[in-house]
Design a protein that fits this description.
This protein is α/β, with parallel strands linked by helices. Helix content is 37%, strand content 22%. Among the domains are: 96-104 and 121-282, Rossmann fold (3-Layer(aba) Sandwich); 594-725, GMP Synthetase, Chain A, domain 3, CATH 3.30.300.30. The protein has an eight-stranded mixed beta sheet. It has an eight-stranded mixed beta sheet with strand order 9-8-7-5-6-10-11-20, with helices on both faces. The longest helix has 33 residues, at 21-53. It is globular, with a radius of gyration of 26 Å. GO terms for molecular function: long-chain fatty acid-CoA ligase activity.
């Protein structure tokens, strides 16, 4: 999701704080003292029950030590199971088998929902730029039976179209129902699918397609123009299948530029399959299902080879750890399907497809008066990257501060009481006070995401404890922080629904072990007190096969032990708490030794400093030849301009405001405060900073599609600025 769309999501969520209709009517009817009295009564009820609860509940055991093979270390498994799970149930040992069995068992249940474009229009901004606005209808659903039928038709159609099943297919598209149908269709013919981020630059796209020798490319019609431009560089493409889009009016012209390629629409492929059915060629659990290209935080992206067995193992694990997962759940799919988190999430339940541009009522492509995807779908489950949740938290707080008065006082009281309920155990056991504050304060905020969310999964990067707790309280649902990599097929650890602490990523999921091994250079050992620490190594059924066409890198980070188990060395540093939950504390590549011998973790410092209200993004930089670190700070324009207005500052434009000494001083003070709150050491706090006016977006090449910073690319772009800060 791009930074500007993250801002739109924030605005949609936070606008609800301004809507005080319910609060006003309650106050008018009962008065301010009525609210206070109602709140007090719930506290009294809690006190009456306190004696029944007999103190704090004993901590739950979530992970237990286990003996495993390979390098010596401290290994843990999920406490729920004695042996690792491999399949969801007997016979579901491939994605194709799992999909077919689900479709036949739940043939009449809703499977995939999509909103139809009713009307589109363009609005012109004050600077002359035009923005597309959409009026979207309700979700139109296909049942599991219908989706299965379409996948079978596509499987036959792609063979009739001339695709050689011994070659690979690539999907280059934003997330949509047709992507999943095409994906399942390819797997029924044992065709390996290459997934590529739709936001990937030309060089990375060419590299990915040529390296995997893709012969058939599936894409949106809007991507045809980009493909035509790089056509001379694509060595193996012979077939193009495009998704029909109502808003693309120049399709005839685009198809005219595709001469020499065999081009067909997705619908035409289905018709080919209907006219001439082809028997399926079903895969085995060891068959290669996906070559997933990472978004590439350094250099060109690497293709991770994921088998059918890897994905069904994750599906089996998820079924054991998400409480009550079933046919009544609705999942909002809007993250890129090329991200392993989204690919793994789109298994089971009803899936409603949306996009970052139409997600909420105030998203940039939503026409005034039209509801956003979340408002219409009312999902129960959704995934998000931490950058989005951080912005939601900052946006809600900003709106609360701006509203002031009774609304702010009530929000502060409600938040404090809910925080005590969660952290105080005996409050958390009773829902009376929770229900009161939910109705009075938090209900309006939750309505922006449909009001039915029961679980938010955060993945892709570390989520700050403050943001995790804040979203948990305001949205009234657990925020489960997951830990995993593309190389481990998404989740390796997952906080459970009843987890009340923050900053941890939970125990290993039931399909893998997590082991800590000594990293002497960084000073982390499994004998550390009070808790074992070390590099995180993941082993089990979800560990992937390695990097495509890159045996050297594969051998560097993948190992097979004497028992035949495959292990992946993550490069992350973790510790295990006594209850078996994992906490990520460092990353090997992010650790720099300063001139006087101190070790600084760049990721740790960045995660803490992101809490500053002025920070939209940042990169901490350390040089071994100096005794201090520096930072590049991408500023939150709205927050900074509000501060400048209140301070009576005069400036010509935003870049000039960023360069003013007063601005630098104000931001530095904010960083020092959050650093102190996070208990950073003095050498971990940037001694000098450079304020950046332009946001870092995937299009700029400075962050990945999952909004992780690309450290090397940022260092190259701001080389001169970094050098000046060290002189």
């Amino acid at each position: 999701m791009e930074n500007n769309e993250a801002t739109r999501l924030t605005e949609s969520l936070t606008q609800k704080v301004d809507d005080n209709d319910y609060l006003s009517s309650f106050t008018n009817r009962y008065g301010t003292y009525g609210i206070v009295a109602a709140a007090a009564s719930t506290v009294i009820i809690h006190v009456l029950f306190f004696s029944l609860l007999m103190g704090k509940k004993k901590g739950k055991k979530r992970g237990v030590p286990v003996e495993v093979g390979g390098e010596a270390g401290y290994a843990v498994r999920n406490a729920r199971i004695p042996q690792l799970v491999q399949f969801p149930w007997e016979g579901a040992n491939t994605i194709a088998a799992l999909f077919e069995q689900c479709c036949k068992k739940y043939s009449q249940n809703p499977c995939m929902g999509t909103r139809k474009v009713i009307k589109k229009d363009f609005v012109t901004a004050s600077d002359g730029r035009k923005f597309e606005k959409l009026h979207l209808g309700d979700y139109e659903w296909q049942t599991y039976g219908q989706v299965y039928q379409r996948a079978c038709l596509f499987a036959s159609g792609i063979v009739n179209f001339g695709h050689n099943v011994d070659t690979r297919v690539a999907i280059f598209s934003e997330t949509r129902a047709e992507c999943q149908i095409a994906f399942q269709g390819c797997l029924r013919q044992n065709i390996t699918v290459v997934t590529i981020y739709a936001s990937l630059g030309e060089d990375a796209l060419i590299h990915s397609l040529n390296e995997t020798q893709v012969s058939t490319l599936i894409c949106e019609s809007k991507q045809l123009k980009k493909l035509a431009a790089i056509r001379p560089s694509l060595k193996t493409i012979t077939n193009i299948i495009y998704f029909e889009d109502d808003e693309n009016e120049n399709i005839s012209d685009l198809l005219g530029s595709m001469g020499g390629w065999n081009v067909s629409s997705f619908h035409e492929i289905e018709l080919l399959g209907e006219r001439a059915p082809v028997p399926p060629s079903l895969p085995s659990k060891d068959s290669l299902a996906v070559i997933m290209y990472t978004s590439g935080s350094t250099g060109l992206p690497k293709g991770v080879m994921i088998t059918h067995g890897n994905i069904v193992a994750i599906a089996a694990a998820v079924m054991t750890i998400i409480r009550g997962l079933g046919t009544n759940d609705v999942y909002l799919a809007y993250l890129p399907l090329a991200h392993v988190l989204e690919l793994a999430a789109e298994v089971g339940t009803a899936i409603g497809y949306g996009s970052p541009l139409t997600l909420t009522d105030t998203s940039s492509k939503i026409m005034r008066g039209t509801k956003g995807d979340a408002s219409v779908l009312k999902p129960t489950l959704m995934a998000a990257v931490p950058a989005i949740l951080d912005r939601v938290r900052d946006g809600v707080l900003k709106k609360v501060e701006g509203t002031g008065g009774l609304a702010k006082k009530l929000f502060d009281i409600a938040y404090k009481r809910r925080l005590q309920a969660i952290e105080g155990s005996w409050f958390g056991a009773w829902g009376l006070e929770r229900g009161f504050w939910d109705v009075i304060v938090f209900k309006k905020v939750r309505a922006a995401l449909g009001g039915h969310i029961r679980l938010i999964l955060s993945g892709g990067a570390p989520l700050s404890g403050n943001s995790q707790r804040f979203i948990n309280i305001c949205m009234g649902a657990p925020v489960s922080q997951g830990y995993g990599l593309t190389e481990t097929c998404a989740g390796s650890a997952f906080t459970e629904w009843d987890e009340t602490t923050v900053g941890r990523v939970g125990p290993p999921v039931p399909c893998c072990y997590i082991k800590l091994v000594n990293w002497a250079e960084g000073g982390y050992t499994i004998s550390d007190k009070p808790m074992p620490r070390g590099e995180i190594v993941v082993g089990g059924f979800s560990v992937t096969s390695g990097y495509f066409n890159n045996p050297e890198k594969t051998d560097e980070v993948y190992k097979v032990d004497e028992r035949g188990m495959r292990w992946f060395y993550t490069g992350d540093i973790g510790l295990f708490h006594p209850d078996g939950s994992l906490e990520i504390i460092d990353r090997k590549k992010d650790i720099v030794k300063l001139q006087h011998g101190e070790y600084i973790s760049l990721g740790k410092a960045e995660a803490a400093l992101m809490s500053s209200k002025y920070v939209d993004n940042l990169m901490v930089h350390a040089d071994p030849f100096h005794s201090y670190c520096v930072a590049l700070i991408v500023l939150s324009r709205e927050v900074l301009e509000k501060w400048a207005e209140e301070a009576g500052m005069e400036y010509k434009d935003f870049p000039e405001l960023c360069d003013k000494a007063e601005t630098v001083s104000e931001v530095q003070k904010s960083l020092s405060k959050v650093a102190k709150d996070a208990k950073l050491d003095k050498f971990e706090v940037p001694a000098k900073i450079k304020l950046v006016a332009d946001p870092w977006t995937p299009e700029s090449g400075l962050v990945t599609a999952a909004l992780k910073i690309k450290r090397e690319q940022i260092k190259a772009k701001y080389k001169d600025e970094l050098q000046k800060m060290y002189h």
